[in-house]
Each structure stands twice: as structure tokens, then as C-alpha cells.
Amino acid sequence: MQNPPDLRPDLAPKLRLADPARPGQPTIGMVSLGCPKALVDSERILTRLRAEGYAISADYAGAEAVIVNTCGFLDSAKAESLEAIGEALRENGRVIVTGCLGAEPDYITGAHPRVLAVTGPHQYEQVLDAVHAAVPPQPDPFVDLLPASGVTLTPRHYSYLKIAEGCNHRCKFCIIPDMRGRLTSRPAHAVIREAERLVEAGVKELLVISQDTSAYGADIAHAEERGHRAHIEDLARDLGSLGAWVRLHYVYPYPRVRNLIPLMAEGLVLPYLDIPFQHAHPDTLKRMARPSAQTKTLEEIAAWRAVCPDIALRSTFIVGYPGETEAEFAYLLDWLEEAQLDRVGCFQYENVAGARSNALPDHVPDEIKQDRWDRFMAKAQAISEARLAAKVGSLQQVIVDEIDEGGIATCRTTADAPEIDGNLFIDEDTGGLSPGDIVTVEVDEAGEYDLWGRLAP
Fold first, then answer.
1. Could you tell me which residue ranges the TRAM domain spans (predicted)?
2. Host H or E run for residue 36
């Protein structure tokens, strides 16, 4: 049983590449798969290449070589990566592979021996060396100007901000620490400087990401340098002073997370938490080797909502984990009903090469996994529909993402991250709006996952 891409709720937005090449300029293509953290890696690689005089092609035909940034979190993601590599080889023929799956070079070359090079995750220098060997640079310092914000693969008005790499958890279903190593936090002053450059370049929303955002700075003893301390609470406060929306992703429900909630109530940080709960039953969490404090999450959620009633909570879950009984799954459904999470994603457990969960007894049959996924998503959908219906008549601050040819504006409320959550649509009086505008909207209709509204007078 493998999860198709639409069951994996952590995928990054699609690439946006549009810069034309000058005559004679060497040109590289990019295929970026997987999560937003991988998208940031792709942006850094392309920024370095643009600084060296390369143009970035939006299609295979216009590229002299193609970089495929792979995902290796699940076997289904690995299969998707191999398929993307094969497509790039067919369409272009000159392919450099990097990213999480690059940690298994024999796996890649066994399927695609014609690739030019294979590098692992965040090995930027090795990727550049491989590009130089395949397509020598020909920089023209009078023509090749790099934007102050670097190369971004998302719309101009929002950007991902990676604050750390790696993870110290040893969850049995996950091989991220094996691929990306232990937690390595960036200095706080470097994060703030990058955020300042992004805001100066017009970014209106900063999406803070890492594998374990709430642990930020723990590996460097929360060091303070140049007036900024490497602690998630201090970082959130500093980012909140820049005037952009600040959205926190991948926050483990440690007790110290409660210190972030007052910042949301104050308006410094968006009232939004993306927390990977994965399951709710204590025995299942124990088999997953998840943090033990996670078993008291309902109490934490109640405490968060007491301080910040408007907080939106999103999470992802795994159903069909080895040993999951019907009673444990029923417990999860009851927990979900009580937790009333705003946004929920779910995927069916699958073995991943190298994961310790593969060796657990009592694997769940595929048909039962599918049945539990169907029941879980029906429950989550009903909760989402009810919570959105309660917003009809309210005023919501939204950010405009896009306006189509018919004048319909696709927006997001503070409760919605790009691509993975819902949207709010405005279908009249949008003539004066542009992507990146932040406006107030009165909600007049709700669906299962989306809202509709009109500009507030």
C-alpha cells in the first residue's frame, strides 16, 4: 500500500519559474519534490546558481541540465522521486539528483544509472560542483543581477523561512534523522537578517519551518549573538516585530509551546499552530516512540484556546500503524471529536526502508488501513465544515494569493497556510486588489474546507 501524493499533506507549493535567459547564458532546470523544507533547499541552490550567472529554465527543453531535488520520507515519495528522475532523463537527458533520497545513491543509480551525479540533502557545494562539471558557468557581472531576496519559488508575497535542519527525535516510522542528521539550528541573528531582507523585498508572510520548530536553539544552548537569542519564543517575538504575518509550522506540543500563545493573542504571531500529533492513543504513541508529553494534548489545547480563542490548529495523523487495534483507532476518532482541530491531514502507514517500525509485529492489512482512513477523513471533514460554518457573518483578515481572469480573488485567512489548508474566495468588487494585499472580509458562505466572502466596507 502506497500513499498517492494527494494523501501526503506536507507537500510544498508548485515551483514558479519565469526568468528568461540572455543569449548564450547557461541554463539549468529544477524539479523540486517533497516538503517546504526541500523547497527552501531548492531556492538556496538556485540562488547560488543565479549568482554565478546561470539562468533558470521553467521547462526541460530550455535547460542544458536538470536538477531533481528528491523526497525520501515514504516509499511512495521515493517512487515519485524515481519517476521524476526518469521523466527528466527522458525529456532532457542530463540529470543531477539531490535531496533526501540522495542519501541512498545506490538506490538511485540502480534505477537510473545515467544520472550525472547524486548528492544528499543540503549538500549545496556538491550540487554546484556537479552543475559546474555538466554546464560550465559563464557569468556576466554587468547583466546577471541577483534580486536582494535571492531566487524564490513561491509567489512574491510569501516565503518559507527555515530556522533549523535535522531532528533529535527517533520516531520509529521516520528516517529523517538518518537522512538529515540531528538538530542543527541557525544562529538567530542570521534568521532575522534573512527575514528582514525578505520583508524589504515585499514579502508579507513568513512561514517558519524546520523539522522540530519548538526545539529551535536547544542544540546551541539557546545562544545569544548580536542581540538575538536562539529560542523559539524570542525568535517569534523578533520576527513579529517586522510587520509581516508570521506562521509557525511543525511545532511539537512541548509544555513550553504555551509561552507562544500570548504572542498570538497580542497579534505578534498568527494564531496558528501546525502540530504533528500523528496519533492520540498512548499505546500507539509509545510504539511510534513519540514524546510522552503528547498524551496530555487535550489539556494543552484547552489551555491554548483559553488564552487565544481564535487560534487555528492543524495537524497530520497516521492510520493503520503496526499494532493499531480497532479500539485504538476508535480512541483516535473520539479524541479528534473532542480536540476539534481546524485543519487535518492524514495518510496511511507504509513501511519505509530503514525505519524501525518495519520490524514491529501486527501490521494492519491494506483494506483496514483504507477503511480507517475513510472514516477518519469523514470525521475530520464534518468537524471542518462545522467550524467554518461558525465563521459565517464574521470579519476575517485575509491575504490575497491570486486573482483569476474572471476577477475571482483566491485568498487565505490567518487560519490557512498556502497549498495545505483552505481558501477564502471573493467574487465581486476585486478590481482594486493585487496579490499580497491584506484586507478585511465579511464571510457570507462556508463549505467543507473553504469560505466565501465580500470586502468589508
1. 389-457
2. helix 36-51
Cell 506540543 maps to which residue? Answer: 253
Q: Which amino acid makes up residue 212?
A: D
Pairing of strands 424-426, 117-118: unpaired
- In the CATH scheme, what is the homologous superfamily, with its name and number, of domain 5-134? Methylthiotransferase, N-terminal domain (3.40.50.12160)
What gap in Å lies between CA 67 and CA 30, rounded to an integer?
Answer: 5
CATH class of 395-455: mainly beta
246 three-state secondary structure: strand
Mean pLDDT by 10 residues, the chain (457 residues): 54 57 81 84 84 84 93 84 95 94 92 95 85 80 45 76 89 83 93 92 92 93 94 96 96 87 96 94 93 74 95 95 97 96 93 90 96 96 96 97 93 94 94 94 96 94
Distance (Å, whole) CA 101 – CA 393: 47
Rounded Cα–Cα distance for residues 281 and 299 (Å): 15
CA distance 390 to 253: 26
Binding site members: 35, 71, 100, 167, 171, 174
Residue 196 sits at the vertex; the CA angle it makes with 231 and 244, to the nearest 5 degrees, is: 85
For the annotated binding site for [4Fe-4S] cluster, the residues are 35, 71, 100, 167, 171, 174
